[in-house]
Q: What sequence folds into this?
């Protein structure tokens, strides 16, 4: 057997984030490949019946079936776990598999969830439509008002759920305040940290119990693949997540895990550059005629600006703005953009723009959109890696067209 160079004794917990992103989780085979190996297999074989029995009994390490685990998926989980600073990470097929798995694995009929109102469309569907079919009730609150979280708790409340910054209104919620109320009331906090990414905000530090990601967004960041992950304690992973996810099957494909591993190598570089460009663009948009309002966490005009500065290391890659001319002006802008593409995806190297009211937040209905503050003139911009000057010029020519 050749030596396995990736497995030399090392202490990845002592590495800086940049090193963790490139080398974390790397588990080389006997061939010494540079890049992470892609194990495109679903099954595993055993040298003897005793080994198979021991693995099924959980008494021996080793893989048994790709729905339970795969070496490439393990490398992805370990890299993201190191970045987050979590005890455990579970890779899943998509961001929504992560949201649903993180909630459903710990709920039963009769339980109650309190959630912030400002939610991504599919998160909203899970809380207000899908979980209630299984006897799980909910209360939606204005997430920026701690009293509403406290007042909504009943003796049935099991979970708090929130997104910060939220999609698409970039509402920023106080993680420490909400988690403190949860701790006081014996309620676990689940945070959708997809907009912030683990680069800009680490919810576990503020007391969150579970954090979910869509790998599809910044982690891949190149529009190639779906994926997701759930970060938690080891105990939660072993006792809640594994029994639920192994048998319900939202497994992350090894190919997608491999793509996400490649994405993570450049995650910090990309997100840092995208945040710099987003801040510039947000500042310029604030001064443009026809733009009624710009929402960006690191602009002083953001209602929770002080909290954003304290909780996040940069303002994020998303800029949301409202056009005075409503839907007509928004669609005109979309039609006239020459570089920025119209797409509901986000976190991509390519800048993407969407009109939430008619796309990502269409199905939740007018009343819910009004309550979330999603207007007809609202446009959500995901800032990519193009030159900021080119993007600003594109936006200006489309606004003036
Ligand atoms: C995209 C997104 C999700 C879902 O992720 P998928 O990988 O598309 O399933 C969940 N929450 C937020 C805030 C998102 O933007």
A:
């Amino acid at each position: 057997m050749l030596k396995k160079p990736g497995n030399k004794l090392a202490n990845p917990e002592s590495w800086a984030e940049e090193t963790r992103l490139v080398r974390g989780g790397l588990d080389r085979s006997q061939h010494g490949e540079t890049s992470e190996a892609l194990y495109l297999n679903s099954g595993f074989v055993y040298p003897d019946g005793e080994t198979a029995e021991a693995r099924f009994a959980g008494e021996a390490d080793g893989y048994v079936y790709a729905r339970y685990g795969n070496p490439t998926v393990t490398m992805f989980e370990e890299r993201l776990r190191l970045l987050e600073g979590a005890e455990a990470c579970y890779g899943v097929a998509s961001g929504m598999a992560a949201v649903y798995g993180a909630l459903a694995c710990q709920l039963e009929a009769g339980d109650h969830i309190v959630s912030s109102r400002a939610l991504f469309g599919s998160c909203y569907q899970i809380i207000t439509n899908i979980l209630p079919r299984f006897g799980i009730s909910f209360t939606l609150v204005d997430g920026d008002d701690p009293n509403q979280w406290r007042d909504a708790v009943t003796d049935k409340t099991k979970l708090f759920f929130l997104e910060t910054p939220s999609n698409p209104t970039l509402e920023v919620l106080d993680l420490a305040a909400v988690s403190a109320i949860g701790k006081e009331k014996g309620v676990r906090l689940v945070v959708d940290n997809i907009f912030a990414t683990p680069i800009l905000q680490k919810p576990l530090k503020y007391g969150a119990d579970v954090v979910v990601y869509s790998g599809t967004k910044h982690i891949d960041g190149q529009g190639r693949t779906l994926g997701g992950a759930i970060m938690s304690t080891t105990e939660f992973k072993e006792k809640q997540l594994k029994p639920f996810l192994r048998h319900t099957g939202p497994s992350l494909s090894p190919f997608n895990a491999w793509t996400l591993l490649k994405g993570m190598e450049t995650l910090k570089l990309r997100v840092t550059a995208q945040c710099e460009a987003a801040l510039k663009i947000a500042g310029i948009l604030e001064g443009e005629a026809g733009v009624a309002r710009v929402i960006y966490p690191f602009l002083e005009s953001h209602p929770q600006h002080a909290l954003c500065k304290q909780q996040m290391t940069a303002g994020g890659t998303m800029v949301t703005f409202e056009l005075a001319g409503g839907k007509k002006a928004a669609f005109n802008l979309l039609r006239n953009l020459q570089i920025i593409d119209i797409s509901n995806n986000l976190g991509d190297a390519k800048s993407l723009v969407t009109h939430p009211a008619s796309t990502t937040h269409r199905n939740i209905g007018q009343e819910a959109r009004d309550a979330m503050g999603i207007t007809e003139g609202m446009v959500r911009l995901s800032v990519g890696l193009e030159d900021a000057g080119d993007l600003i010029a594109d936006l200006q020519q489309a606004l003036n067209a």
Remarks:
- Residues 15-264 form a domain with the Aspartate Aminotransferase; domain 2 fold (CATH 3.40.640.10).
- The mean pLDDT is 96.
